[in-house]
Design brief:
Number of strands: 17
Low-confidence stretches: 280-308
Order of helices and strands: HHHEHHEEEEEEEEHHEHEHEEEEEE
Structural class: alpha+beta
Largest sheet: 9 strands, mixed
Number of helices: 9
Strand content: 25-35%
Distance between the termini: 48 Å
Helix content: 25-40%
Mean pLDDT: 81
């Protein structure tokens, strides 16, 4: 993953030029200088990159939280974030051809880099040690976002391999997802119990043993696994509980999880309220008060929670 990206950029842009039998002399004026600069910056960024693979449940929780923030107009979290590392490689779960979501094997990843108050997000694909480069970079600063083509896109067009608008839109959609997950990790790591962080091997033990038997040993690459902590598991339970809130309206309840959420404090600051257990002892009738309207995601009701 990181080694593959480094190897790609060390040889960049020669491998793309040779695909069409071109040479630096065939390129538009100034493009080769931009390509070399992009190569050096990318190699420097990758030296500090930390890899984060996200479990399916943690991915679901963070995605739902981001959707809630957008729906509630709390986008300013993106302007306040400070990434835990200058460069994060984000590996979300992937949906296979059979429609089943599985752990990311390193075939698609997001590269999110923070420079001062700006966040730069790119997508890369890796298939059989071959890198599919990023054609565009999403830049986020404060509440604004913009997109610029990478020098790679200019190169592809110069050698007769234009990138379609549809491919750019697909890449941008993935970039937005990578950025949201990086912000979610950076934010929720500050709250004890929301996420569980462990160093694990990129390749499971059975894959490494199988590779050894075939004579092709896999590197024991360590990555950071992002899973749910205790509070995070309670958050998922509470969020799924709200999906079925309609048919249980007014039903007596025992101890249950109340979901955490972002909210505006009286001073106007954006704060996170932790998920927590409510109720204990005997069965007590409890009426659930809700506000808001139905949304396309099925999270139709947003509970009105007492802060006391």
């Amino acid at each position: 993953m990181v080694p593959e990206l480094k190897l790609f950029f060390k040889d960049y842009p020669r491998q793309i030029l040779e695909m069409k039998g071109g040479s630096p002399a065939d390129l538009p004026p100034g493009l080769m200088d931009r390509l070399r600069d992009y190569r050096e910056r990318s190699l420097s960024i990758l030296e500090d990159a930390q890899v984060f693979r996200i479990d399916i449940d943690a991915y679901w929780m963070m995605s739902e939280l981001v959707n809630e923030m957008k729906r509630d107009g709390l986008h300013e979290l993106f302007s306040q974030v400070q990434l835990p590392f200058p460069t994060m490689i984000i590996m979300p779960p992937l949906i296979g051809a059979d429609g089943i979501m599985r752990q990311n094997d390193g075939s698609v990843l997001g590269l999110v880099t923070q420079v001062d108050y700006e966040l730069y997000t790119q997508r890369f694909a890796i298939r059989q040690n071959t890198v599919g480069p990023s054609a565009c970079c999403m830049i986020t600063k404060g509440m604004g976002a913009s997109t610029i083509p990478t020098p790679t896109r200019e190169l592809l067009e110069a050698v007769g391999m234009p990138v379609s608008d549809g491919m750019i839109e697909e890449e941008l959609a993935m970039n937005r997802s990578f950025l949201a997950l990086a912000v979610g990790i950076a934010t929720l790591l500050r709250h004890e119990g929301m996420l569980d962080v462990n160093q694990v091997s990129l390749h499971p033990r059975h894959e490494r043993r199988q590779a050894e038997r075939s004579g092709k040993a896999l590197p024991d690459t360590l990555i950071t696994r992002i899973a749910l902590g205790k509070a995070g598991r309670g958050q998922v339970e509470a969020m799924k509980d709200h999906i079925s809130a309609d048919w249980r309206e007014g039903v007596p309840r025992r101890t249950h999880w109340v979901r955490g959420h972002y909210m505006k404090s009286r001073s106007g600051k954006l704060v996170w309220r932790m998920p927590h257990l409510r109720g204990a002892g005997p069965l007590v009738p409890q009426l659930r008060h809700v506000t808001g309207s139905a949304s396309t995601s099925g999270l139709a009701k947003i509970p009105q929670v007492d802060d006391t």
